[in-house]
Every structure is written in C-alpha cells, then in structure tokens.
Amino acid sequence: MVEEQPPIDEIKLIHKLGIFKIKGRDKQGRKILRIIGKHFPAAAKGSLSLDLLKSYLEVKIFPKLERAFVVVYVHTDVHNLPGISLLRSLYDAIPVNVKQYLEAVYFVHPDLQSRLFLATFGRFIFTGGLYAKVKYVSRLAYLWEHVKRNEIEIPEFVYEHDEDLEYRPMMDYGLESDHARVYGEPAVDSVSSVATYSMRCIS
C-alpha cells in the first residue's frame, strides 16, 4: 500500500515554518530532530491540521529515524501550552519501531508554566518512558554541552531570548515581565531532568 503524500503546497508551508528539521548529530553521534514550538500555533489556528503534520512526519521524518536519535524542542516565545499538547499528539503518532530509538528530549527555554505543567502531568502525558528522557535546558550554553553549535540551526530569536535571560534571570521563571532589559548577574543553571524538578516541587 502506497502512503498518501501530503499536498505539495502544504509541504512547502511546513518547510517554510521550519517546525521540524533533521540535521547533524549530538556529541554521542545521535541524529538530531529539531522542533520549533513557536510555530505550533500555526497548526493550532488551522493553518495546518494535526493530521497533516502527522502525515508529514510519517512521510518525511520518521523514515530517517532508523537509528538512535534525540529531539531538541525549542520552547522559546511559546506563551501557552498548545505546543506541549501537540507534542503529545505527535508523540502518540510515532511508530513503535521509531520510539525505541528516541534517547533524549532537550527542552530548551522552559518557562514557569511548562515546568509546573510537566512536573504535575508529565508522567501521565508522556508515557512509555519518555518522561524520564526529558531534560530542561535553560540556556543555550548548556545545550552546547551535548550538541555542537555547528550541528544544529537555531533561529535568531532564540539567541536574542537567551541573551535576555542571561541578564534577567527572573524572566526565566515568569517572575519578571518582558519590559526594558535590566542588567545584572547572569543566571546560573544547568541541564536538569524533569524528574529532578518534580522532586524539588515535592520537597
């Protein structure tokens, strides 16, 4: 049975949005699937249907993930949670023979809302062991500990946001509104797993 190809115009739109991209390898030699959460609202508002995104993944992405791979999910400038709910729906659509190769999900620029949401519901939403593979990456500097900079394309708005966070650590946790930059000491943080964050919430 031949898989139905997504319409050419819609394929071009997904490429233009740059939601998904496979390029490069991390420092352990695993393929990288980069996902830009900021562009998910285009799907949520009807520009792209969830079924179309799933079809695109089935045809263009999943066949290229036949070995160990990691996901770099960029949450920068996502101000609500449709990105996470869509991630869950897309994760459910991943074939079992592909899921077995997913070894880590780097969650770049998590905000307070996403941290609390995942700490509360993560184990129920991301089943099958995925929850334990999710790691928060609060700064790009910590992503480079796992991925070489020249191995992945990061949009300019992500670098700009990262610079703001360096000088406004309270903004990182939703404790400061996005007004004129206030310079101070750079925030100190590291890659931390969702599980670790959950334990902090409980203690």
What report would you give on this structure?
This protein has helices spanning 8-17, 40-44, 50-61, 82-93, 96-99, 112-125, 140-143, 156-167, 169-172, 194-202; strands at 20-25, 31-36, 69-74, 102-108, 134-137, 192-193. With 203 residues, it is α/β, with parallel strands linked by helices. It has a 6-stranded mixed beta sheet with strand order 1-2-3-4-5-6. Helix 6 crosses helix 10 (194-202). Mean pLDDT is 76; it is low at 174-203.
Structural class: alpha/beta
Helix content: 40-55%
Number of strands: 6
User: Looking at the structure, what is the overall shape?
Assistant: globular
Keywords:
globular, 203 residues, disordered C terminus, alpha/beta, 6-stranded mixed sheet, Phosphatidylinositol Transfer Protein Sec14p, single chain, 6 strands
Summarize the structure.
By secondary structure, this protein is of the alpha/beta class. The protein has helices at 8-17, 40-44, 50-61, 82-93, 96-99, 112-125, 140-143, 156-167, 169-172, 194-202; strands at residues 20-25, 31-36, 69-74, 102-108, 134-137, 192-193. The chain has a single domain (8-202), classed as 3-Layer(aba) Sandwich (Phosphatidylinositol Transfer Protein Sec14p).
List the helices and strands and how they pair.
Elements: H1 8-17, E1 20-25, E2 31-36, H2 40-44, H3 50-61, E3 69-74, H4 82-93, H5 96-99, E4 102-108, H6 112-125, E5 134-137, H7 140-143, H8 156-167, H9 169-172, E6 192-193, H10 194-202
Parallel strand pairs: 2-3, 3-4, 4-5
Antiparallel strand pairs: 1-2, 5-6
Helix pairs in contact: 6-10
